[in-house]
């Protein structure tokens, strides 16, 4: 029996040793409730202790508590001590993991009042070693952190014992190093000792052995010229020079200088030898050519013997000249009416305004002609010190010719004492004020057309609007896109002619019918060179799609079964399926590869490439992409998947590229989100500028930045406002930044106008809502006496069964004089002649007439099932002094009247899925396409030869019902994680018995789900390292020994897997 107890005691000690995870010898603190109390005698010479409340939080929380009454005596660094208590049932002892380093504190508290006599008696045997009082802290009952110090006074215990009365907090170290930190306190009733351990204090072996000595910077501030190359920072030693001391140093990111650009970051340890009084830290200074002003670097010392000056600042004194700045046009485009007389162009100076400088400007012809349309001048613009903008004027000639909008080009060159900015070229548009020619404008009737490959040719309607007087012509020219001239169509450059009064002609393009399978291809057709006063309309180019009529080759078409995949970052593997359709004759190959998108191979996933082989008759093959799990929040990232080089007569299909999205599994840091402070800002035209603010919400940790830019709405850059773009930088903790947009106050009535604002490319932060905004500029100019013309609304609607719709044009702001405006319909998604009848004409208002006028647009009712379609409406060519208002464009929406009579097609969204056994669940999706009207249903079944329902998975099968308009259903499959090594298992899901106007797609009516086993079959136990194996062996030996002695021992844990 004695042997049994000894063996079990050994097992307990071994298990306790494993739990502590120590880097050095493990120290165990315990007490014996029945041991004789021992007293420490005569400590009157000790320094009094001052206790301060700091309010810091307790940091050493990685410890557990247990009760034990076993006596242990511990010798550490030749210092032997033990704890004892009497009169209590037991003492609570806290123990736990964490490194036990050489150079840590032993510190304890004793209470020897009459009511708390025995729980805290500690016996120290110094064995001739000198002990020093040190500082430390302990946790109080109200949750505060209390700090104390004994100022390093010597405490000599040699040959005597002493008793401490009242509360005293003492710490001890010996010459050889430090032992573990210990705090003992008694509660109010004295029935237990609470013991706390902490590894917060990690000190070098000899640190603190020479009390009163300090290591600190020689000054709180240092400075160095940017071109000095390096600077030496001095660390001084005070309070004595006996012995060897050391201290850690580092540069920090607290200053305004940037490591790697302004200086080289350093860190390390300074070792002071016995008698050494100072050491130096060398920091390399990087000299750039950029003016940044003086910048600072933070310096920090850390360690046990650090003095008061443990922080210092190094100032790098700028040696570059303050920049004179760069000059550029305030906008890339300007707009001026032909009758305005002059245009004032602004050149702005940014990035500095030091000193004076000059820039040359020049004006040259675009489509406008110098001397006829404007006064072609050049000159030099001078900037004085501090000046940030300047202007020059361009004289505009108001002729009586109808020319349409014309352009001139502005150039900046030859900067002197300033730099040339990015916008050194700009364009001025001169808006013609003459009426549109009676000859009209010529354009395509639509922006896209399609033709079958065997259609021999396509006739593209070219229409003449806003006038049909006289004979005019235009050149129609083809150019390659994905279609190739000579192989897919005949290159064409034809002249399309209109006789007097003619409004429609065709541009004919021959189509080449080959026998190769190529997918659909496109070509571009452009109109140019109008003659005899005609002009080009808005749709002067169009795209023609040639629809392939050749069958997929017998060897088939190879493509991804989905265009997008996604999987959570968790060290899992994405299974990518390549399918073969249209034929499966013979053996074929295709190469596959991954390409970085926003994800990076090697850090986010493992690059994969190779060749997939399809044997004769095989229609799908998969390859794997392994995802790598990191601990960095990056947001969702993407990988591109590419198929290439098909062989064996096969071709790649349209889905020869796909995207894999890696869903991040880390939580977003509290860096916040950047948003505009308003979704709409308001400014008057005469304000001159508006300030726009961007806020950081939901967190402000770390530095961040975001780009901003303006874009035209109804307001035009250069004419109504100056383009603004740039980057806003947020320092750590900063929550607001702003930028300014300059408003141009012109003399034209334009009505209320707007421009758009957009945030983009956030760094170190995300974009919130709103990340876009609008500035509305209120016009300060009076409307012309003749008024403004608009559509009554920006959107009209009509049923396809309606024969026509009335469109209203209104006159507002003035009624002086007779005025007119041209109107026209243009294709949007609706097509002239098949969906509506092309309409064009003129609306007239008499002198004094206000209110509205209407014109009719005829709707064509076809028998095709289509989506709702739109017609574009435009007003142009105002006569009589009136202007166009804000609603000079509108749309008509035609609602289709055909019944959704086609059958719905049902199928799975993918043919295969895979999930780890630990995934918990996976979703499968049934989709409904072609038509979504009406209620339908379909039966779902699941079957498997190796996966067992209820053991490996759970899923609800049976009838799946789609409501009217519903396009997909999601079924959740619960994955059950067992501990059996049973390999990968597959479940086949199938659709059957479609009810209602629905059919099941034969290519997507089944789905295979693979459950990937997460158990390895490499030893059956998972192993626990050499200590785990040793303990298991030892435990089995103990069980065998007990059985030999006739004891009954439960062995359920040794039977392998639980059943």
Automatic annotation (TrEMBL):
Which residue ranges traverse the bilayer?
1023-1042
Q: Which Gene3D superfamilies match?
A: 2.60.40.2030
Keyword Hydrolase assigned: no
Output the InterPro entries linked to this UniProt entry: CaCA, CalX-like_sf, Calx_beta
Q: Does the UniProt entry include the keyword Transferase? A: no
- Tell me the Gene Ontology biological-process terms attached to this UniProt entry: cell communication; metal ion transport
> Which Pfam families does the entry mention?
Calx-beta (PF03160)
Keywords, A to Z, come to: Calcium, Ion transport, Membrane, Repeat, Signal, Transmembrane, Transmembrane helix, Transport
Extent of the signal sequence:
1-24
Show where the Calx-beta domain sits.
Answer: 205-302, 312-413, 426-528, 542-644, 658-760, 776-876, 890-992
Q: Which GO terms describe its cellular component?
A: membrane
- Protein's recorded name: Calx-beta domain protein
């Amino acid at each position: 029996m004695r042997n049994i107890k000894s063996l079990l005691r050994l097992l307990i000690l071994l298990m306790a040793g494993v739990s502590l995870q120590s880097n050095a010898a493990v120290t165990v603190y315990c007490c014996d409730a029945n041991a004789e109390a021992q007293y420490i005698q005569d400590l009157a010479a000790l320094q009094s202790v001052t206790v301060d409340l700091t309010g810091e939080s307790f940091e050493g929380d990685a410890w557990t508590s247990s009760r034990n009454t076993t006596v242990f005596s511990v010798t550490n660094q030749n210092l032997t001590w033990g704890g004892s208590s009497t009169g209590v049932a037991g003492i609570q002892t806290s123990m736990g993991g964490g490194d036990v380093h050489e150079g840590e504190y032993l510190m304890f508290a004793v209470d020897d009042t009459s009511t708390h006599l025995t729980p805290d008696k500690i016996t120290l045997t110094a064995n001739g070693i000198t002990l020093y009082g040190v500082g430390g802290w302990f946790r109080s009952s109200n949750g505060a952190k209390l700090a104390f110090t004994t100022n390093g006074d010597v405490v000599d215990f040699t040959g005597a014992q002493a008793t401490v009365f009242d509360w005293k907090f003492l710490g001890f170290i010996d010459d050889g190093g430090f032992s573990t930190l210990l705090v003992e306190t008694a509660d109010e009733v004295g029935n237990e000792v609470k013991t706390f351990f902490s590894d917060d204090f990690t000190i070098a072996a000899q640190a603190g052995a020479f009390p009163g000595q300090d290591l600190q910077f020689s000054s709180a501030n240092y400075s160095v010229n940017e071109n000095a190359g390096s600077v030496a920072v001095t660390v001084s030693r005070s309070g004595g020079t006996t012995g060897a001391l050391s201290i850690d140093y580092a540069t920090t990111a607290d200053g305004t200088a940037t490591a790697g650009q302004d200086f080289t970051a350093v860190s390390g340890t300074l070792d002071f030898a016995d008698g050494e009084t100072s050491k130096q830290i060398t920091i390399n200074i990087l000299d750039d050519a950029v003016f940044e002003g003086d910048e600072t670097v933070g310096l920090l010392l850390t360690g046990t013997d650090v003095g008061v000056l443990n922080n210092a600042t190094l100032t790098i004194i700028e040696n570059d000249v303050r920049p004179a700045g760069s000059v550029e046009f305030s906008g890339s485009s300007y707009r001026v009416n032909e009758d305005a007389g002059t245009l004032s162009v602004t050149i702005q100076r940014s990035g500095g305004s030091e000193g004076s400088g000059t820039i040359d400007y020049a004006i040259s012809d675009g489509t406008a002609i110098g001397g006829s349309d404007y006064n072609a001048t050049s000159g030099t613009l001078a900037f004085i010190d501090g000046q940030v903008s300047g202007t020059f004027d361009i004289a505009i000639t108001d002729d009586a010719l109808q020319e349409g909008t014309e352009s001139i080009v502005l150039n900046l060159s030859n900067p002197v004492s300033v730099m040339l900015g990015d916008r050194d070229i700009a364009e001025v548009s001169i808006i013609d004020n003459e009426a549109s020619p009676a000859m009209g404008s010529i354009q395509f009737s639509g922006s896209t057309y399609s033709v079958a490959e065997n259609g021999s040719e396509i006739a593209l309607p070219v229409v003449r609007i806003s006038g049909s007087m006289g004979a005019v012509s235009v050149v129609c020219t083809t150019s390659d896109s994905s279609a190739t001239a000579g192989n897919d169509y005949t290159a064409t450059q034809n002249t399309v002619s209109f006789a007097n009064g003619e409004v429609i002609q065709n541009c004919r393009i021959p189509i080449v019918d080959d026998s190769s399978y190529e997918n659909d291809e496109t070509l571009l057709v452009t109109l140019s060179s109008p003659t005899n006063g005609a002009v080009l309309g808005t749709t002067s180019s169009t795209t023609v799609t040639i629809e392939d009529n050749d069958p997929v080759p017998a060897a088939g078409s190879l493509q991804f079964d989905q265009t997008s995949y996604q999987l959570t970052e968790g060290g899992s593997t994405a299974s990518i399926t390549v399918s073969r359709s249209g034929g499966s004759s013979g053996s074929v190959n295709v190469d596959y590869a991954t390409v970085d998108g926003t994800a990076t191979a090697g850090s986010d996933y493992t690059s994969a490439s190779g060749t997939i082989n399809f044997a004769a008759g095989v229609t799908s093959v998969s390859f794997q992409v392994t995802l790598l799990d990191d601990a960095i929040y990056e947001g969702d990232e993407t990988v591109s998947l590419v198929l290439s080089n098909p062989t064996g007569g096969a071709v790649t299909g349209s889905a020869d590229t796909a995207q894999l999205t890696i869903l991040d599994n880390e939580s977003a840091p509290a860096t916040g989100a950047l948003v505009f402070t308003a979704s709409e800002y308001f400014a008057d035209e005469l304000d001159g500028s508006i300030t726009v603010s961007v806020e950081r919400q939901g967190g402000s940790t770390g530095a961040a930045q975001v780009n901003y830019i303006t874009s035209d709405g109804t307001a035009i850059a250069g004419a109504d406002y100056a383009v603004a773009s740039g980057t806003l930088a947020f320092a750590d903790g900063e929550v607001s930044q702003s930028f300014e947009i300059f408003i141009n106050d012109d003399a034209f009535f334009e009505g209320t106008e707007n421009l758009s604002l957009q945030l983009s490319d956030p760094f170190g932060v995300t974009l919130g809502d709103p990340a876009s905004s609008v500035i509305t500029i209120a016009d300060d100019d009076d409307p012309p006496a003749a008024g403004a013309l608009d559509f009554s609304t920006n959107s009209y609607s009509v049923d396809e069964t309606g024969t026509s719709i009335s469109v209203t044009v209104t006159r507002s702001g003035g009624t002086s004089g007779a005025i007119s405006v041209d109107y026209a319909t243009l294709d949007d998604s609706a097509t002239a002649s098949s969906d509506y009848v092309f309409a064009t004409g003129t609306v007239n208002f008499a002198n004094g007439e206000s209110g509205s006028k209407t014109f009719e647009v005829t709707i064509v009712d076809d028998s095709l099932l289509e989506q709702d379609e739109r017609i574009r409406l435009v007003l142009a060519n105002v006569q009589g002094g009136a202007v166009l208002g804000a609603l000079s464009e509108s749309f008509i929406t035609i609602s289709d009247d055909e019944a959704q009579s086609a059958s719905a097609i049902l199928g799975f969204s993918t043919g295969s899925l895979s999930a780890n056994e630990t995934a918990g669940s996976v979703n499968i999706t049934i989709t409904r396409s072609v038509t979504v009207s009406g209620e339908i249903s379909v039966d779902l079944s699941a079957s498997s030869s190796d996966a067992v329902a209820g053991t490996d998975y759970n899923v609800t099968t049976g009838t799946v019902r789609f409501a009217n308009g519903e396009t997909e259903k999601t079924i959740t499959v619960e994955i059950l994680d067992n501990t059996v090594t049973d390999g990968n298992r597959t479940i086949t899901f199938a659709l059957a018995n479609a009810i209602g106007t629905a059919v099941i797609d034969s290519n997507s009516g089944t789905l295979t789900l693979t459950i990937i086993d997460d158990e390895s079959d490499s030893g059956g136990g998972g192993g626990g390292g050499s200590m785990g194996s040793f303990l298991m062996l030892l435990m089995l030996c103990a069980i065998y020994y007990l059985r030999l002695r006739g004891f009954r021992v439960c062995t359920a844990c040794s039977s392998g897997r639980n059943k």
